[in-house]
Description:
- The complex is a heterodimer.
- Chain A is built from 13 helices and six strands.
- By secondary structure, chain A is mostly helical.
- Chain A has a domain at about 40-275.
- A two-stranded antiparallel sheet of chain A has the order 1-2.
- Chain A is globular, with a radius of gyration of 21 Å.
- In chain A, about 45% of the residues are buried.
- The model of chain A is unreliable at about 1-15 (pLDDT under 50).
- By secondary structure, chain B is an alpha/beta fold.
- Chain B is about 40% helix and about 25% strand.
- Chain B is built from ten helices and ten strands.
- Chain B has helices spanning about 40-45, 75, 95-100, 105-120, 120-125, 135-150, 165-180, 195-200, 220-225, 225-230, and strands spanning about 1-10, 15-25, 30-35, 55-60, 65, 80, 155-160, 185-190, 205-210, 210-215.
- A six-stranded mixed sheet of chain B has the order 6-7-8-3-9-10, sandwiched between helices. Chain B has a four-stranded antiparallel sheet with strand order 2-1-4-5, with helices on one face.
- The longest helix of chain B is centred in the last third of the chain and has 16 residues, at about 165-180.
- Chain B is globular and about 45 Å long.
- The two termini of chain B are about 35 Å apart.
- The mean pLDDT of chain B is about 90.
- The chains are: A mainly alpha, B alpha/beta.
- Chains A and B meet through helix 7, helix 8 and helix 13 of A and helix 2, strand 6, helix 3 and helix 6 of B.
- Chain A: One of its GO terms (cellular component) is plasma membrane.
- Chain A: It is a multi-pass membrane protein.
- Chain A: Pfam families: BPD_transp_2.
- Chain A: InterPro entries: ABC_transp_permease (IPR001851), LivM-like (IPR043428).
Amino acid sequence: MNGHLKxxxxxxPGQRPWLGFLLLAxxxxxxxxxxALGGQAWVRIANFSILYIFLAxxxxxxxxxxxxxxxxxxxxxxxxxxxxxxxxxxHFGIHLPFWVILPLGAGLACIFGVLLGAPTLKLRxxxxxxxxxxxGEIVRIFMNNLNAPINVTNGAQGITLIxxxxxxxxxxxxxxxxxxxxxxxxxxxxxxxxxLALLVIVVNMRLQDSRxxxxxxxxxxxxVAAKACGINTRNIKLLAFAMGASFGGIAGGxxxxxxxxxxxxxxxxxxxxxxxxxxxxxxxxxxPGVILGAVLLTGLPExxxxxxxxxxxxxxxxxxxxPESLRMLIFGLALVLVMRFRPAGLWPSSxxxxxxxxxxx
Amino acid sequence: MLEVNGLRVSYxxxxxxxxxxxxxxxGEMVALIGANGAGKSSTLRALSRLLxxxxxxxxxxxxxxxxxxxxxLVGEGIALxxxxxxxxxxxxxxxxxxxGAYARNNKTEIENDLEQVLVHFPRLKERAxxxxxxxxxxxxxxxxxxRAMMSKPRLLLLDEPSMGLAxxxxxxxxxVICAVASEGMTIxxxxxxxxxxxxxxxxxxxxESGEIxxxxxxxALLTDPKVRASYLGE
Lengths: 361, 234
C-alpha cells in the first residue's frame, strides 16, 4: 500500500542522509559570512528572506493546508510588531525582555486570528478574501490613527528606538566576538531567524501528516463531507487562523526588534499579497516550495535592484531605463511566467503535480 | 429509531418543509420520494444538521438531535452520504475511506472495517491509490457510501444516490445499498427515482411541496394509482 510514497528525499546524495544535512547546515552557516563580503546590506537581505520564509510558512497553514484564502495576513504581523514596539521602547517607557513579549505578541495575534476567523466561518474563496482584505486594512488604519485622543501607536510616524533582542548583556544589535570570529548584529539575527525558521518548518511538517492536517485537507476539499465525517469544522478552521496568526505575531516581534522602528507603512496590503504570492508561486501546501518562493521573492527584487544598473551600463554604456521601474516590471513578468508555465508553483508537492496533470487530460 | 415531528425548514421566508412527521424503525429501509423541489433534500439536510430547521423535533434513540452540532452525529451512529457524492477529490480512495473513520480511535477495528468495505466494493480496491476526483461517477458514489460505512453507523442517510449516474451504475449502486441493508443497517433513502426506491425499501413517504401527502408500505405505494400517475410515469 505504501509503494506509492513518492516523497523522495531532496538535497540528499546517496544513502547517507546525514551527509545532506551536514551540507545544508554548512551552507546555512556560511550564508551570513559570504553575504557579508558584499556588505552588511546583503546579510540584512538574507535575514529578510528568512523572516519571509517564516511568514510564508505561517500563511501556508491557513491558505495551503486549510484552503482559506487570507488577504489580510499582514495584520497579524502588525499586531506582533506593535506589541513588541510598545512594550520595548521609550514610547511608553516600558522595556520588557523579548522572551516575555514574543509569546505575548504571538498570543495577541492568535486572539486576532480567532476574531477574524469567527465571523468568517461560513465564507469561502473570494468572499473570504474580501473580508480578510478589509480586516488587514482596518488593523493598518488603526495603527495609523491611534495617536489621538491617547497616543498609543504614534500614528504615521511610527515607533522608534525599539530595543533589540537582548539576553542578559548579550545584545543582538552590536558586534561581538566568539572564538575569535566577529559577528555583526545582522549576522546574529540571522542565526536567531534560522532557529525560528527551523521551528516553523518542523511545526508545518508535523501538522501536514497529523490528524489536524487531514481535517484541514478535508475541509479544503469538501466542507459538507468533512462535517459528515465528524470533523468539527468550526474549531478546526479557527485553529488554522489562530496558528497562522501566531506565527505572524512572532515574525512581527522579531521584525520590530531587528529594525528598531515600526510604522503602519510596513503593513500595507501589498505586503499581504507578497506573502501570499510566495506561497502560491513556490507551491501551495508544499514546505520546500514555500521556502523557495519566499527566498526568490525577497531575493529577486534585491538582486534586480543591484544588478540592473551595472547590466545596462555594460550593455549600452549608459542608463536607458530607470532601474526602479524596470525592477518591478521584471518582477511582475516573472510572476506571470511562472504561473503560466508552472501553475502548481515552482516546486509543488508530487500529489499536487499529479492532480494538475490529471485534470489537464 | 428515528422520529421526526413537525419538522419545518425555511430559506429566507420560503418554507421548503412545512411541518412533516415521519419515523424510521430499527433495521428498516424507508424511502422518502418526491419530485424535484419537494423538500426531500432539505429534510435530510436538517436531519444531518447541515441547516437549522425553524421548528419541530428529531428524536434519535430517545435523544434530541437538533440540540447536537453536526460533527457529533457520527459519534451517535448516524452517517450521511451527501447529495452529489461529496468525496474528497484530491485524496485517494483509501484516504477518503480513512476519513470516514475520523471520529474513531481504535486502529485495529478501523483497519478491519476498511478491509470489509473493500470486500464490499472490489472496485474501490482496484482504485485504492487513485485520486477520488478522477473516479467515475458511480465509483465516487460507491466511495461515498463506503466512507459513510467506515464510521460504523447504525443509521445511514442517503441523499439521491442515483443522481447523475448511468442506468447501469444506478443498478449497481442499489445492489450495494440492498446488500448493506440486508446486514441489518437502518437506512433512510431520499430519492427522485421513485420506482427503484420503492422496490428496495419497506415503507415509503411521498413528499409534495414541503408536505408528506402519502405514506404506506412501499409495495402498496408502487401500485397506488396516484403514485403511478405522478412518479412512475404511467
